[in-house]
């Protein structure tokens, strides 16, 4: 089975700097780690936080002598890396006055054959398209999501709430953090979308699903996702990473 990948990050139409960062890191046995981070704290600090997060986790992945495979091991491994990055970003902010208060969201997907582990902090999301089901796998760590959960506002109200961008959790803003992680099996044809809120604030779930269901190549799909967000205003930086488990056996691969 082969995992197809694509990535695009864009400054958008309004901002001068891109505080998003992302990476797709290939390891042994066709295992893959994908990361999306959306920095905060001003363009210098936001740039630093998101880039530190992606670079550090990518380096840990590349340096790993053994790659975890069991879901519980994957969840432990990715949580350990995120905790280490949190300490790194927090320490950097404390040591550099211009970076105090900086932080970043992070969402990661660790693919190990047929299973995947997703971990996140903040409001960058991971979606799963499985046949006709389009599921948001992550839960936003945001003020408006807490208000939705307690019934104080509706999901529709949340879309236009003036404090929509206020996070309840972020990477690097506190000494200690809690990380959400889950693992599940992938089936041929399944697609995982990791993205920053610059995409989800501008493109509705219905449109995301329609684009992912298109028969075009993964890179064409992420290009279209970013273009759609820019067409709808592009006020924020936009990042999309697509992981697609190939539906057919590739030429040269042996059938089971």
From TrEMBL:
Top-level taxon in the UniProt lineage: Bacteria
Pfam families: PP2C_2
Family annotation (Gene3D superfamilies): PPM-type phosphatase domain (3.60.40.10)
Matching CDD domains: PP2Cc (cd00143)
Location of the PPM-type phosphatase domain: 4-245
NCBIfam families the UniProt entry points to: Stp1_PP2C_phos
Name of the protein: Phosphorylated protein phosphatase
């Amino acid at each position: 089975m082969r995992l197809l990948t694509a990535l695009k990050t864009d400054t958008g139409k309004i901002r001068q700097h891109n505080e998003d960062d992302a990476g797709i890191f290939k390891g042994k046995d066709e295992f893959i780690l994908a990361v999306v981070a959306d920095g905060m704290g001003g363009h210098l600090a936001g740039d630093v936080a998101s880039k530190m997060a992606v670079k550090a986790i990518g380096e840990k992945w590349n340096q790993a002598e053994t790659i975890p495979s069991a879901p519980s091991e994957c969840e432990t491994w990715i949580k350990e890396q995120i905790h280490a990055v949190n300490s790194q970003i927090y320490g950097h902010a404390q040591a550099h006055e211009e970076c105090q208060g900086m932080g970043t969201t992070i969402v990661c997907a660790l693919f190990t054959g047929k299973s995947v582990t997703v971990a996140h902090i903040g409001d960058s999301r991971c979606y799963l398209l499985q046949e006709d089901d389009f599921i948001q796998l992550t839960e936003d760590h945001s003020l408006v999501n807490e208000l939705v959960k307690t019934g104080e506002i509706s999901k529709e109200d949340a879309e236009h709430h003036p404090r929509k961008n206020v996070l309840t959790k972020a990477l690097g803003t506190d000494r200690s953090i809690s990380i959400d992680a889950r693992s599940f099996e992938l089936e041929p044809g399944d697609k995982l979308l990791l993205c920053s809120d610059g995409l989800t604030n501008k493109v509705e779930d219905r449109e995301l699903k329609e684009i992912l269901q298109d028969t075009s190549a993964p890179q064409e799909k992420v290009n279209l996702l970013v273009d759609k967000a820019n067409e709808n205003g592009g006020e924020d930086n936009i990042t999309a990473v697509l992981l697609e488990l190939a539906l057919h056996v590739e030429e040269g691969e042996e059938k089971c």
